[in-house]
C-alpha cells in the first residue's frame, strides 16, 4: 500500500464511520499520511483524528478509537495503533512493496507529481545572480510538478550562458526597483547566498566548455546546499567516485538501467514482489512528500538530499538483482529487478526536476 492509497483508505474509513452514525463531521478533502514522528510507531501515521476532534465534539483519542476498527484489515494494513493525543499509526503488511513499486513504474518520471498546489499562482522573483537564477529555474520546475501556475522573473537580463549552458529559463525580467515579498505567494523572492566572491564561473571563450563544471555539476553545486549556505564550486563535483553524491545518484541510476538491459539479455523481466529493502522502499514511498515539501518551501536542496538517500539505499541491492553462475531467474530476482527499476526511475525523475541529466551509461 502506497501513501496515496493509505490516505484514501483513511478517508474511506472516516466516511464509513459517518455513515454508521459514529461520527458527525464533514468529510475532509484529503488526509495527510507521513512517517511517524517521535513517540509514533509502524510505517506511517496520520493526525486525522486531531483534525476531526473539534467538529465531532469528541476527544481526539476517542475519534481515533472510533476509526481504528474501520482501518484494521483494510488492504495492506497489518496493524493500527493509537499513540499520543490521538495519532493513528499503521503497520503495513509484507506485500506493501508490490503496490508501491507498481505505482512508481506506472507513474514513470512523473511519479510524485500531483495537484497539491493546483489553483495557486506563484510569482517568483530572482536576484540578478547566477545561483539565484538557477534556484529560480529549479523552484519553478518543482512548483509546476505540483500543479501550481508559475511566473519566473529575474531582476535583470539573463546572461546567454545561464540559458545555453546551465539550462535556465525565465518568463520575464523584473524592474529592480519593484519590491519583492519573500512570504507572499504572489511574489516570492529567490535570494540564496550568492556564489563566493573570487570564483569566476562566467563563460570562457572556448564554446565547447563554457563553464568550468558544465551544466549538471554546476547546477548540483548551486542547488544542493540550502539557500542560506555558501556553495562550493570545486572539482569535487566532477570526480567519479563515492565521495561525490551526484556521482552516486547518477551511478545508481545507470546501474539500474544496465540491470534491466542485462536481465533482458538473460530472458527475464521485472515483476513487483516482496523484497526486504526497508530503507529503499521508504525512500520511494517518501518521494511524493519530498517533492511537495521542496515545492512548498521553494527548497530544491530538500529534493537533492532525498535523492542521495534513495541512491545510497539502492546501491547495496544492485549486486543481488541478477542470478549468479548457473542460477536460474526466480521470482525474487524479478522482484529485486522491479524495485531497482523503480528506484532508478525516481532518481531520474528527481534529477530532471533539478535540471540535471540522468544518463543510462556512465
Short structural description:
The chain has 362 residues and is an alpha/beta fold.
Description:
The protein is α/β, with parallel strands linked by helices. The protein folds into three domains: 3-93, Arginyl tRNA synthetase N-terminal domain (Gyrase A, domain 2); 121-233, no CATH class; 240-353, Isoleucyl-tRNA Synthetase, Domain 1. The chain has helices at residues 3-19, 48-56, 60-71, 96-107, 130-145, 160-164, 214-223, 245-265, 278-296, 300-314, 331-353, and strands spanning 44-46, 77-83, 87-92, 121-126, 149-154, 172-173, 188-190. The strands form two sheets. The protein has a four-stranded parallel beta sheet, with helices on one face. A three-stranded antiparallel beta sheet has the order 1-3-2, covered by helices on one side. The longest helix has 23 residues, at 331-353. It is flat and about 65 Å long. The protein starts with a helix and ends in a 9-residue tail after the last helix. Keywords: ATP-binding, Ligase, Nucleotide-binding. Its EC number is 6.1.1.19. It catalyses: tRNA(Arg) + L-arginine + ATP = L-arginyl-tRNA(Arg) + AMP + diphosphate. This is arginine--tRNA ligase.
- Gyration radius over CA: 23 Å
Mean pLDDT: 87
- Roughly what fraction of the amino acids lie in strands? 5-15%
Distance between the termini: 34 Å
Q: Tell me the quaternary state.
A: single chain
SSE-based structural type: alpha/beta
| CATH fold name of the largest domain | Isoleucyl-tRNA Synthetase, Domain 1
Series of secondary-structure elements, N-terminal to C-terminal: HEHHEEHEHEHEEHHHHH
Helical stretch count? Answer: 11
Could you say which overall geometry the principal axes of the C-alpha atoms support? Answer: flat
Largest sheet: 4 strands, parallel
CATH homologous superfamily placement of the largest domain: Isoleucyl-tRNA Synthetase, Domain 1
**Taking strands numbered 1, 2, ... along the chain, how are they ordered across the largest sheet?**
6-5-4-7
CATH class of the largest domain: Mainly Alpha
Instruction: Count every beta strand, where a strand is a DSSP E run of 2 or more residues.
Output: 7
Low-confidence stretches: 179-186, 202-210
Number of domains: 3
CATH architecture of the largest domain: Orthogonal Bundle
What percent of residues adopt helix (DSSP H or I)? Answer: 40-55%
Catalytic activity: tRNA(Arg) + L-arginine + ATP = L-arginyl-tRNA(Arg) + AMP + diphosphate
Keywords: ATP-binding, Ligase, Nucleotide-binding
Enzyme class: ligase
Protein name: arginine--tRNA ligase
Amino acid at each position: 500500500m502506497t501513501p496515496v492509497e493509505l490516505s484514501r483508505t483513511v478517508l474511506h474509513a472516516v466516511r464509513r464511520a459517518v455513515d454508521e452514525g459514529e461520527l458527525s463531521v464533514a468529510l475532509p478533502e484529503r488526509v495527510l499520511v507521513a512517517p511517524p514522528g517521535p513517540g509514533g510507531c509502524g510505517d506511517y501515521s496520520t493526525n486525522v483524528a486531531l483534525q476531526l476532534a473539534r467538529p465531532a465534539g469528541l476527544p481526539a483519542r476517542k475519534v481515533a478509537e472510533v476509526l481504528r476498527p474501520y482501518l484494521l484489515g483494510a488492504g495492506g494494513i497489518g496493524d493500527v495503533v493509537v499513540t499520543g493525543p490521538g495519532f493513528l499509526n499503521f503497520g503495513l503488511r509484507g506485500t506493501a512493496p508490490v503496490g508501491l513499486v507498481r505505482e512508481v513504474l506506472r507513474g514513470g518520471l512523473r511519479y510524485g507529481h500531483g495537484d497539491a498546489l493546483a489553483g495557486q499562482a506563484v510569482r517568483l522573483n530572482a536576484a540578478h545572480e547566477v545561483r539565484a537564477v538557477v534556484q529560480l529555474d529549479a523552484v519553478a520546475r518543482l512548483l509546476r510538478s505540483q500543479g501550481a501556475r508559475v511566473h519566473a522573473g529575474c531582476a535583470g537580463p539573463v546572461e546567454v550562458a545561464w540559458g545555453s549552458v546551465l539550462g535556465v529559463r525565465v518568463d520575464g525580467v523584473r524592474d529592480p526597483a519593484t519590491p519583492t515579498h519573500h512570504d507572499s505567494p504572489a511574489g516570492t523572492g529567490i535570494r540564496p547566498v550568492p556564489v563566493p566572491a573570487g570564483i569566476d564561473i562566467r563563460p570562457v571563450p572556448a564554446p565547447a566548455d563554457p563553464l568550468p563544471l558544465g551544466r549538471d555539476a554546476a547546477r548540483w553545486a548551486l542547488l544542493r546546499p540550502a539557500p542560506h549556505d555558501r556553495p562550493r564550486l570545486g572539482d569535487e563535483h566532477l570526480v567519479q567516485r563515492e565521495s561525490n553524491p551526484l556521482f552516486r545518484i547518477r551511478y545508481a541510476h545507470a546501474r539500474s538501467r544496465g540491470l534491466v538491459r542485462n536481465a533482458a539479455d538473460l530472458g527475464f523481466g521485472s515483476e513487483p514482489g516482496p523484497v526486504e529493502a526497508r530503507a529503499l522502499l521508504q525512500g520511494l514511498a517518501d518521494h511524493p512528500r519530498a517533492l511537495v515539501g521542496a515545492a512548498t518551501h521553494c527548497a530544491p536542496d530538500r529534493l537533492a538530499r532525498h535523492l542521495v538517500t534513495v541512491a545510497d539505499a539502492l546501491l547495496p541491492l544492485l549486486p543481488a538483482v541478477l542470478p549468479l553462475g548457473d542460477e536460474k531467474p526466480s521470482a525474487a530476482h524479478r522482484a529485486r529487478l522491479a524495485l531497482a527499476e523503480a528506484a532508478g526511475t525516481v532518481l531520474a525523475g528527481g534529477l530532471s526536476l533539478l535540471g540535471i541529466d540522468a544518463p543510462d551509461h556512465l
